[in-house]
Amino acid sequence: MPDDWKHSKTTSIPASDNYGILTGAINNITVVDISANETFDWNIVNTFKVRTPSQGMHLYFQYEANLNSIYNVVPNISVLNDNCCVFFGSGYRVIENLPIAQMPQVLVSQFSSQRTPTLDNTIDLEYYDLLNILDNSWFNKHELIIKLVHLIRNTNMPETMRIPTLRKLTYHRSMYFNDDTFIGYFQQPMNSIQKRYKIATIAKVIKNQFPVQYNDWLIKWHPRKADYSMLFKYKKGAFVKISSIQAKYKRVITPSRLAEINPEFTVATKHVCKSCLNPHLKGCCDDYSRTNRTSCVFVNNIELVD
Question: Rounded to whole angstroms, how far apart are CA atoms 281 and 273?
């Protein structure tokens, strides 16, 4: 499929008689994909039906906003909704050319109940915050999901936290979310290559692709390793209380570290008005008086980057 297939309602495949139809809100359809070896009685549902080349079945329904796309929502049955597609064309045969119906509530309830696990709060927050920076492709490509599983297995994360952490990462983002599937992944033996997957490797990927978010993660979990230069910029005449900077960044910002970032970031003590907290200058506010003042330490020529 072309890289931009999610932005087209249908997508032709070069040198093929098939094409993809984007499911979900964009085409107002939700498709239930049933494998050939599934015993589901599809005859009880009156809607548009297509036999697939593998002798499975595609049941087309009107868009169901309450369902997420999910692989194997129950064994051998997948829901194709937003950010997914279904194929049609050569090898696909319409077997019931009926109007696309609304999905029966019994199916909506069954598929929804499989998607509402207990989101255990017993997770590793440090690794969760790091891996949560990754974009959705990591949670919707089978080979990347497997890589995440092995990355987590190779950390020092307690075993009791591993599946809950992956569950929380993928619950709202992945069509592959399924507790039974994930448990199976964690139980599979790792080969010699998979044993070498390390969290440091994915951290480098995140650092290169999402430098700002990665630096925010460092500030939260490893403040002394963070790059604070991207948080401040030079602005002549501007100033910020050093106590405000230190409160925001866990007090690891010192005058010497600011000077390393930019020699123009100088520290000085200034009088401020107790009422308006601005520099104590005549007319700064209605409550100005010569004695209505206090002293604060400021960093000069600095502005915080949002």
Answer: 8
The rounded distance, in Å, linking the Cα atoms of 28 and 54 is: 25
Give the closest residue to 156 by CA, choosing from 124, 129, 181.
124
Exposed/middle/buried for residue 38 (C-beta within 10 Å: 0-12, 13-18, 19+): middle
Q: Where exactly are the structural domains of the chain?
A: 5-113, 125-209, 228-304
What is the third-level CATH fold of 5-113?
Prim-pol fold (3.30.2250)
Beta strands of 42-157 (E only): which ranges? 49-51, 57-62, 70-74, 77-80, 85-88, 93-96
0.70 exceeded by pTM = no
Tell me the per-residue pLDDT of 48-84, one tens digit each, with 9 for 90 and over. Answer: 999 999 888 999 999 999 888 877 777 788 888 887 8
Cβ 272 vs Cβ 279: under 8 Å = yes
